[in-house]
Fold each of these.
Amino acid sequence: MKWILIGVLLAISYYGVQGFVSKPTIPRPNQPPIYHPIPPFNPGPPKFPTYRFRRSPQGSVDASVLKSEHGRPQLNLDYQQKFISNDKETFSGYGGVSSPDFKHFHPHGGLNYEWTPNKNTFFGAHGGVQQLPNGRFDPTVGVNFGMRFRRDLDQQLEE
C-alpha cells in the first residue's frame, strides 16, 4: 500500500514540476525577444514599472561615552540623516537616545535647516524634542543667522 502511495506522490510531483518548465514567451512591445529559457524562480521582467531612489546623502551614527559633571559616565547614541544637501541648502534630521546612568534611557530627535544665499551668509532654523527624566517632553525651537568674515592675506596690519 505504501509503495502505491509513494508512486502516486512521485507522479503528482513530476507533473507539477513540468508545469514550471519555461514556455516560449509572447514578445511584448518595446522588448527584445528572449532566446534563453527563463527558470521558474525568475518569471521575467516585472509587469509594472519599478523605480529606484538614490540613497545619497547618507546618514551617520555617532556613539559616545562622556563623563558627566558628577564624574559618572554618560551614554549618547545618535543617528543623523541628511535629506537635502546641495550648495545652497541643507536639511537634516536627527534622533537618538541618551542615558545618564546606563539604566534610564531618554529619547530625543529633531530637524535642522540651513540656507546659504552666498558663501559668506547663512540662515538656519532648528526644532527638536527631548524626553525629560520625569517623562515629559521638552520641545526646543530656534533660528540663527551668521556672517563669515575673512581678512585678506595681502593686507598688512598697520601699527
Amino acid sequence: MICCLKIYHPTVTTLTKCKMLRFMFKDYPLQIEVISKNAVLIYVWNVPKKEVWQAFINFESTNVITGYGFSEEKAEARLIAEAMVIKLLSMRNRRQKHPLVL
C-alpha cells in the first residue's frame, strides 16, 4: 500500500516541510517531491494508516492544509490527496467548517 500526503502552506518553506515529513516518516521508505514553493508531496510505502492520520491531524491543527490518499498505485494515491487539498482550500475560501468538525 502506498500513501501520498500533500502539504500546502504559502508561508512555510519547502525545506521546512520536507524536514518535517522526513522526521515523521523516518522509519519507512519514502519519496519526496516538491511541487511548488507552496506544496510538497510525500509517498510512503507500507506505513500504518494511523500514523498518516496522526500526521494529518498534526498539520491541520496548525493550519497547514494537508491531503492524503491510499492506493496500490502512486498516481491514484496522489489524485486522492490532491482532491482533498482542493476541497479543503475551497472550504477555507468560502469560510466553511472543516469537514471533520461536527
Amino acid sequence: MEKERVYRRTAASSLVISLLIWVPNLVFQVASPLWLLIFIIAPIGTAFAVLAKNYWLAAANTVMFFSFFILMAGGYWIQSITDGHP
C-alpha cells in the first residue's frame, strides 16, 4: 500500500515536471533545450504509473512522451491552414 502511494506520487510528479518543461518554449517563446528531458522523465513516470496500477497517469505520461511530435504536427497543421505552406 505504501509502495503504491510512492509510485503514484512519483508518476504524478513526473507528469507535472513534464508539463512544466514545456512552459519556456510554449508560453515565453524561448528556445530552451530542456524539452529533451521529457524523453527521460516521461517513461519513468509511465513505469511508476503502471506499477501503481493507475492507468490514467500512465496514459498521460505516455502522451507527454510523444508531446514533441504532437506539438510539431499541430504546428505544421496550423501553419498549413493559415498561410498555405507546410
Amino acid sequence: MAAPMARFLAAGKATATRSTGSVLRRRFASSAGHDDAQEAVKWERITYAGIGVCAVLAMYNLSKGHQHFPDPPPYPYLRIRNKEFPWGPDGLFERKKKHSDDHH
C-alpha cells in the first residue's frame, strides 16, 4: 500500500515543477488583484459608519415619546388569588401598592 502512495506523491511533485525546475506558485481566486490591507481598511470604515448610523437611529428613536395606554378596567374576575404568594400580595414582578411595615 505504501508503494502506490509513493508513486502518487512523486507524480504530484513532477507536475508541480516547471521544466526549469522552479516550483509553480498557486494563486487563489479570492486574492486575485485585491490587496488585503485595502480590503481590511474598507471594511473597518464600513463598520464604523454602520455603528454611527445605528447610534444616530437609536438616539432618534429613544428621543421620541411613546404612547401611553389607559389602565384597563378593574374586572372582578381578573387577578383572583385564593392563596397569597410567598413573596407578598403582589405578583413577583409587579409593585402596585406601597406595603406598610406593620406586617414585618
